[in-house]
TrEMBL record:
Belongs to the OXA1/ALB3/YidC (TC 2.A.9.2) family. It is found in: Membrane. It holds the Pfam family TPR_16. This is (wild Malaysian banana) hypothetical protein. Residues 70-112 are annotated as: Disordered. The chain crosses the membrane at residues 147-170, 217-235, 263-284, 305-324, 330-347. Residues 85-100 have a biased composition (Low complexity). Keywords: Membrane, Transmembrane, Transmembrane helix. SUPFAM superfamilies: TPR-like (SSF48452). GO terms for cellular component: mitochondrial inner membrane.
Length: 551
């Protein structure tokens, strides 16, 4: 059996000897004789050190099939010679499949030898294949067009952003649908003192959302989840080309950035870092301009506020990071940020939004065209006026209409804009306080009511009664009874209004005051205020009698 194996090996060497030339193309004989042996198959290769025994784990990489059994107990198919070369022919030349190729190019010349090959095979990441695809795509575009590399990088960035535009439009349309259903949906998180757990509240939210047919809130992150991986892929691919001194990158720039593989330096080296930092800051301000006017309260509003602060601060480290990025990558980054700025500005244009099927960011107003302001319904014209151009009083009127219709989320941003334009607008302060009080934001509501009180000089102003009542109730519901009683006592000092609605508010405040004083043990004082309220509502007499008997 051992003799047969040796004859078989000798026969293989005779057959394979013509396939390996001692003088392969592009490599001198002396360099070749000291090259470690390389055994590879049609689709893989591995490097063996001289004198190293072939392990079982490398059988699939051998040039010929290994014989598991041999006379000396080692794997068959090759022998270790005294010179330390494994599987070599008698002439000392390697035998490898590349040796018999028409060109005779050695693996060492093709970059397949040594530890580099092993590192490349074992160290590939999930980004390696997409990066190769992007680099091949950019190479093909460059070879086809013959344009400079900085133009290739810029135009490919534009093509990438255009390919992502449909996803952005779909997300904006879904966000519009969510905004329409938002006032009808319960909050996804349990309100304070509601007694509900997060799980119960979220189930209620999901049930109502499905009933109304509202899209999932995850649509708000659709474009982000696609854009960020694409941005990182393009960025890392171009960075790899810069670090590898890709052919043509050393002269592929223009003006002050001729060499795309260099880092920013020299007199104009600060241009790219400043552009990156400045564009980032401007894009953040424009993006959050519309979010500021929305009703983002509670934990969501707090997180949004801190996230914006974080993005604002990031402009500073980006300035310094820009000095440590190759100029080829900076060309891509500046182009991408510039396209983002253009996209944000374009999506605020009424004509472009109409063409994309998006709702215009303007408020429809019903403007009556008549000197008497009394016309049939069919003569009322619908016009669209930008919110920024409206007067504070007009903004307040629209907000009150929304408030009467129960659209609190639409009324709040209008009230905020009206207060910002005219801080002395008492009705807007009171309306904002009423909404916040109904939503459970009692501390903020009390501030708005007290701010309105401080701006009212006339004691007979009917809004003074409403603001005082709101401030007193807001403090009582917080548990701050001293401040609440103080405000409600002021109601008794005001003149009883003549308007039925205001008169009801006046006596209701006295009833709440009397009830609070009774709980505090001040029964005689409570009876005094309940006696005044009983003249308006005889039903209070029952409580008055109970208070007098207890006193």
């Amino acid at each position: 059996m051992g003799l047969a194996t040796k004859l078989l090996r000798h026969h293989r060497r005779l057959l394979l000897r013509p396939l390996s030339s001692p003088y392969p193309l592009f490599a001198p004989p002396e360099y070749h004789s000291h090259t470690p042996s390389l055994l590879c198959s049609d689709h893989s290769s591995i490097t063996f050190n001289p004198g190293r025994r072939p392990d079982n784990s490398f059988r699939s990489f051998s040039w010929f099939a290994w014989n598991p059994a041999s006379d000396n107990g080692r794997d068959g198919g090759g022998e270790t010679r005294e010179d330390g070369n494994f599987g070599s022919s008698e002439s000392g030349s390697e035998f490898s499949p590349l040796g018999g190729s028409p060109t005779g190019v050695e693996p060492s010349i093709m970059g397949l030898d040594g530890p580099g090959m092993v590192e490349e095979v074992t160290g590939e990441s999930v980004w390696s294949y997409p990066m190769r695809a992007v680099i091949s795509l950019l190479d093909g575009f460059h070879d086809f067009s013959g344009l400079p590399w900085w133009v290739i990088i810029s135009t490919s960035t534009l093509a990438l952003r255009l390919s992502l535009l449909p996803m952005l439009i779909v997300q904006l349309r879904k966000a519009q649908e969510i905004a329409l259903f938002f006032p009808k949906l319960p909050p996804p998180f349990p309100p304070p003192l509601s007694g509900r757990s997060f799980r119960e509240q979220y189930k209620l939210f999901q049930k109502k959302r499905r009933e109304l047919g509202c899209p999932t809130y995850l649509w708000n992150f659709a474009f982000f989840t696609v854009q960020v991986p694409c941005f990182l892929l393009w960025m890392t691919s171009i960075r790899r080309m810069c670090l590898d001194n890709h052919p043509g990158f050393d002269t592929g720039g223009m003006l002050w950035f001729q060499n795309l593989t260099d880092f920013p330096s020299g007199t104009l080296g600060f241009v790219f870092p400043i552009l990156i930092s400045g564009l980032h800051y401007v894009n953040v301000q424009i993006s959050f301009r519309t979010i500021r006017s929305r009703n983002l309260r509670g934990i969501l509003g707090l997180l949004t506020k801190y996230y914006k602060v974080y993005l604002d601060i990031m402009a500073i480290p980006l300035l310094f990071i820009g000095f440590h990025i190759p100029q080829g990558s900076l060309v891509y980054w500046v182009t991408n940020s510039s396209l983002t700025l253009f996209q944000l500005l374009a999506l605020k244009n009424s004509f472009i939004r109409m063409k994309l099927g998006l709702r215009d960011e303007k408020v429809p107003l019903r403007e009556q065209v008549s000197s008497e302001k009394v016309l049939p319904e069919n003569n009322i014209h619908l016009t669209e006026i930008s919110v920024d151009t409206l007067s504070p009083q007009k903004l307040l009127d629209i907000a009150l209409e929304d408030l009467a219709a129960g659209r609190h989320n639409e009324a709040i941003p209008l009230l905020e804009m009206a207060i910002e334009k005219d801080p002395e607008l008492v009705r807007a302060l009171i309306a904002k306080g009423q909404i916040l009080c109904s939503q459970g934001s009692l501390v903020e509501a009390a501030k708005y009511f007290e701010n309105a009180i401080s701006k009212i000089q006339d004691e007979e102003d009917p809004f003074l009664l409403i603001a005082t009542f709101g401030a007193g109730v807001s403090h009582l519901w917080q548990g701050n009874k001293l401040e609440g009683i103080k405000h409600l006592k002021r109601i008794a000092e005001l003149k009883e209004p003549e308007s039925p609605a205001n008169k009801s508010c006046y006596h209701q405040g006295l009833v709440i005051l009397g009830s609070t004083l009774f709980e505090e043990g001040k029964k005689s004082e409570a009876a005094k205020y309940l006696r005044i309220a009983a003249t308006y509502d005889p039903g209070v007499s029952v409580y008055l009698k109970e208070c007098e008997e207890a006193g």
